[in-house]
Amino acid sequence: MSGRFHILTGRHYGDRVAHGSCRSVVGYAIEQGYFGSVRLDGLRAALITSWPGAIHEGNGTMQVIIDERADERQRDALLKILTGAETDDMATIWWVFSAMCPNKLEPLFLPIEIDIDVEARRGHIRVPGVIETVGEPIRNPVTGAEHRARIEMPDGVEFRIAEAGSGTTRATGQIPLPNLENTHAQFAHIHFSNKGVVD
Q1: CB of 98 within 8 A of CB of 62?
Q2: Residue ranges of the alpha helices (H) in the chain?
Q3: Which of 15, 165, 171, 196 would disulfide-bridge 177, Cβ 3.0–4.6 Å?
Q4: The dihedral of CA 185, 189, 194, 196: what is its sign?
Q5: For residue range 153-178, what is the model confidence (pLDDT) as tens digits?
Q6: Global confidence as pTM
Q7: How far from 59 is each of 51, 174, 194, CA to CA, in Å?
Q8: Which domain holds residue 191?
Q9: How many alpha carbons lie under 13 Å from residue 13 in its C-beta half-sphere?
Q10: Can you spell out the DSSP letters for 131-170?
Q11: 7-49: per-residue pLDDT in tens?
Q12: Maximum Cα interatomic distance, the chain, rounded to a whole number of Å
């Protein structure tokens, strides 16, 4: 497994006192990728996750959404990738999310709209009737000017560098995520293998 992805993540990391839960929507636009002999170029996927407490406490629920354009082999490949089934233990964020989500809903195969500009810190994810996520730059609360901030994780399981932003998400499917207004969002180019983040 290897691939280059553009990602937009909308997250609400809740703490026990203020929110009591952790929730996220992640969208992936695959620039180039393969799983064995199966090419994944140009496909899209999304992942919805929800935990009743902190992620590491587990008991989460996840649902994978795969581009309806994918054929049977591509669907199988993407499902394995996004549930961490073919990666080394703890090597990718997909493995971590899967391990912390014993409640896995049936995957959906639907049209997915994703437009991501990592450098501009802008993008959207739309799966009609399921997800609507919009990401934009963080703004100065006084002047409205755009801020730029980066997250650097040299040994991270999700990316090496991500642009930080602000995201608003509505999810109305089997994992409803209401009230995710102006929460943490991140934008990144990533290159994964089954061993983890490549660069």
Answers
A1: yes
A2: 72-82, 93-99
A3: 171
A4: negative
A5: 999 998 999 999 999 988 888 998 87
A6: 0.90
A7: 6, 16, 24
A8: 2-197
A9: 7
A10: EEEEEE--B-TTT-PBP--EEE-TT-SS-SEEEEEEEEEE
A11: 656 554 443 445 568 888 999 999 989 899 999 999 999 999 9
A12: 52
